[in-house]
Amino acid sequence: QVQLVESGGGLVQAGGSLRLSCAVSGSIRSINAMGWYRQAPGKQRELVALITSAGNTNYADSVKGRFTISRDNAKNTVYLQMNSLKPEDTDVYYCYGELAVVFTFRDYWGQGTQVTVSS
Predict the structure, then answer these.
(1) In angstroms, what is the C-alpha Rg of the chain?
(2) What's the confidence (pLDDT) of residue 62?
(3) Do the beta carbons of residue 67 and residue 78 sit within 8 Å?
(4) pLDDT value at residue 80
(5) CB-CB contact of 94 with 80 (8 Å)
(6) Is 95 exposed, middle or buried (0-12, 13-18, 19+ CB in 10 A)?
(7) What are phi and psi of 86, to 5 degrees?
(8) DSSP notation for 43-93
(9) How far is it, in rounded angstroms, from Cα 105 to Cα 30?
């Protein structure tokens, strides 16, 4: 069974840094885009950052210049380096992957990891 396993969330003071990791667990044939979304209670899930298989990236305006997404294709892992964190970055962060187990690509999501930034 394919899963996205996240790690690295936690509590940090404003101005601090955290690094999130997400590894694909299970047998897959191919990975297209991977990325991170976040969601606050009662709100829609929103894109934070996305990276394609070619390494092209896309960021939410609110995190540009502070967050960096990267991936290690050999390890089927995506990372999110978060610097200069602000209290408004507090959310549950979800890993996303567009994966193909055999031939068809579909969306997979991690279980979510809490990021809390104190002022």
Answers:
(1) 14
(2) 97
(3) no
(4) 98
(5) no
(6) buried
(7) -120, 155
(8) S--EEEEEE-TT--EEE-GGGTTTEEEEEETTTTEEEEEE-S--GGG-EEE
(9) 8
State the pLDDT at residue 49.
98
**Tokens coding 57:** 């990236």
β-sheet bridge partners, residue 42: none
pLDDT recorded at residue 25: 93
Contacts of 61 (CB under 8 A, 6+ apart): none
Looking from the CA of 112 toward its CB, the CA atoms found within 13 Å total: 10
- The confidence score (pLDDT) of residue 112 equals 96
Contact 23, 8 (CB under 8 A): no
Which token pair is 14?
């404003």
Residue range 52-111, pLDDT digits in tens: 999 999 999 999 999 999 999 999 999 999 999 999 999 999 999 999 999 899 999 999
Residue 97 per-residue DSSP state: E
